[in-house]
Design a protein that fits this description.
The structure is a homodimer. By secondary structure, the first copy, chain A, is α/β, with parallel strands linked by helices. Chain A has 2 domains: about 70 residues, no CATH class; about 290 residues, Divalent-metal-dependent TIM barrel enzymes (TIM Barrel). In chain A, about 30% of the residues lie in helices and about 25% in strands. A 9-stranded parallel β-sheet of chain A has the order 12-11-10-9-8-16-15-14-13. A 4-stranded antiparallel β-sheet of chain A has the order 2-1-6-7. In chain A, strands 4-3-5 form a 3-stranded antiparallel β-sheet. Chain A is elongated, with a radius of gyration of 25 Å. The first copy, chain A, starts with 5 loop residues before the first strand and ends with a helix. Chains A and B meet through helix 3 of A and helix 3 of B. Chains A, B: Belongs to the C-glycoside deglycosidase beta subunit family.
């Protein structure tokens, strides 16, 4: 539209009103005061382009969640003036952009899995990566099959864009999620050689893209979640390659697998037996969900099942369990479901987790994985809230 | 995913089940029977790529709306088999693709305005244009400001893509919608020279893109919707240019402006006075809405107003009014809100409209403008229904 058709814009931030000359407009055709906008004959607000409104507020916004309302009146010549103009009225609620100058004693990243609802609908993979940088994170986690175009053979152009994008945005590739799909071949199990080949394929691709961690999601063979025994030999055959590529292989400890479990014992025995530095534990913080048994239906993973079956009874996991395995933990997938308007997470006890991890000397990544309500536009907001919350805890501890 | 992880796909069409070898799979890596899919070691179903399932059904589908359910089981190795696999279950309901071999005595087109809810969210302008062709239409109507990137100065690359895309898809540009935004300049009205300049700008762009009709949406000056008097001189100054470009200028008769109204009289007087062939009437079929006064809140255009004001009382418009002006009608905007599962439109009396228009010898465009419930994914389905309905009426008449 011709931008001179805009009338009476008002921005309300936490109840404080700004309007008229208090708002500066940045449009693709230039920057304008409101008077300049009204007097303009060539300023345009094109379809599909954001207008950036800058409001002068001494001191800026405090860190946290703010209520922002934007009211705009558009003169529509073809509707009688007596009937009014088109009033656009949008309310938003969201965290501010964390300052990237924060000096955190650990890394903050985001898994692109968080954007599952938006991906392919409102956002491309590239949009998601831009959002990770925009929210102030520096670590980027992906799913190989889910986010690499033409997996397992991305084009050179895709790989070039991956590196130049990350450099421009200041992002470090952290973890590459892969699958050891042991039920891939109908009617028979996967052999060790096939498992090793799948792992090698993903390791090489992860190495080519600059990742430091690889999480193989290993198939299970029983209701109590014992993993397919081929995993150990499949991983062992790839330890030299992982060392060469500088990648640590870390299976995920994800509810209903918990910290004190036969699976974790099996992983730690493997690590001790091989004496490798290329293997460690990934903790999904969903295991510490304090409301798990207050909620219906179990975890999201099991909600995807047929529904008639129920997950096995699994004990509540105190954060103190984490202390016992911290020396083997190489990565945190900072799974969460909801951070409210007061920056409180009623599910995951972040302060306790950070205390145990950081007191044990952990300085690696916390990589956010949003897995709450599946609604468009929700993940970007929730990720900002979670990072603001984690940063505020880090500041309290400092 | 590896396509061998797919299990037990079933397609149900109007209650008839197809499964196993009855379904052929087309994936980016190749075409497969279900047995071939299960035996494959390299077949992949990549993220964001459709799998096309072809079901062999003698005689094919009848024209109309069909219930289609698709059930798919995916073996997820990391979830215990006892708890089941991921069941994907999708129901769809939609019209089949009309045969493009239909020999209609008029043109069927679509206005991209129909996709307003999807545009910029689930679809790009290019996606919408692809959908217009896919649903079997041959006419393409756009809004200049809304659909041309960098309006009013699209790049040569954009224009080249416009022409090559339309040629590939078999689409003819029909009508270009523009605005004569008479309230564009705050505090003063638009001059005739300014109005003529705006119209010239849009005419030249419409001509460059190959359109045959231009609809200027003219600003109004009173509650009873009299149009700004500058329109007549602004149009008259452009009649030679319109002739040169082969474009007919046709203001829209859109409720609450009705056929028997001072505005239409003004238009017809202009046409008679100038004797021009470059001017005519565009009828928006929303004027014939038989349920207008049964619905709350009036038309969508007025729902956008402030809400406190009410549109003026406007009489019900019988389709017989159309017969009186058919000699001046150059274009139909086939506005509609909903076509139900039985292909019945309870709002717009299509049979009557087509009878009056075609009996009067009209052989121009009916260009669909969906303006019903604003829900994602709804417009493409409704447009298919409406075209199936209009084609079935044309077949009855033939």
């Amino acid at each position: 539209m011709w931008a001179s058709l805009l009338d009476e814009p008002t921005v309300v931030v936490d109840g404080e009103e700004f309007d008229g000359e208090g708002i500066r407009w940045s449009l693709p055709t230039g920057d304008y005061s409101f008077a300049e906008l009204r007097a303009s004959t060539d300023a345009r607000w094109p379809m599909d382009e954001p207008a950036v409104l800058t409001v002068s507020k001494p001191g800026g916004l405090s860190r946290g969640i703010h209520d922002v309302t934007f009211v705009l009146r558009v003169r529509m010549s073809y509707i009688p003036e007596e009937l009014g103009a088109l009033d656009l009225d949008r309310e938003a609620e969201g965290g501010d952009r964390p300052m990237s100058t924060d000096n955190l004693p650990f890394g903050l990243g985001v898994s692109l899995y968080s954007y599952t609802e938006d991906l392919g609908v409102t956002m491309t993979v590239e949009d998601c990566i831009e959002d990770v940088a925009d929210l102030g994170a520096t670590g980027l986690e992906i799913l190989g099959e889910g986010h690499i175009r033409d997996y397992p053979n991305p084009s050179t152009a895709w790989i070039d864009a991956w590196f130049s994008g990350n450099e421009r945005l200041g992002l470090t590739p952290t973890l590459y999620g892969s699958w050891l799909d042991t039920r891939r071949f109908p009617g028979r199990s996967m052999t060790v050689a096939e498992g090793a080949a799948q792992l090698e394929l993903d390791l090489r691709l992860a190495g080519r893209l600059g990742f430091s961690f690889l999480r193989p999601k290993i198939g299970v063979i029983s209701e109590d979640l014992r993993v397919d025994p081929i995993w150990a030999d499949a991983v062992q055959r790839n330890l030299d390659l992982a060392a060469e590529l500088g990648i640590v292989i870390c299976p995920e400890i994800h509810w209903p697998t918990v910290i004190k479990s036969p699976v974790v014992e099996e992983y730690l025995e493997f690590k001790e037996r091989t004496g490798t530095e290329q293997f460690g534990l990934l903790i999904d913080t969903g295991v510490f969900d304090v409301q798990r048994y207050a909620r219906r239906g179990g975890s999201a993973a099991f909600q995807m099942g047929t529904g008639s079956a129920r997950p096995p009874e699994v004990p509540f996991v105190p954060v103190s369990d984490l202390a016992d395995v911290m020396e083997h933990v190489v990565y945190f997938q900072a799974k969460f479901y909801e951070v409210d308007d007061e920056l409180v997470d009623h599910y995951i006890p972040w302060r306790e987790i950070l205390d145990v991890a950081l007191d044990a000397g952990y300085s690696g990544w916390f990589s956010s994985e949003y897995e709450g309500h599946r609604e468009l536009y929700r993940a970007p907001d929730q990720l900002r809230r979670q990072h603001a919350l984690i940063r505020s805890i880090a500041a309290e501890r400092a």
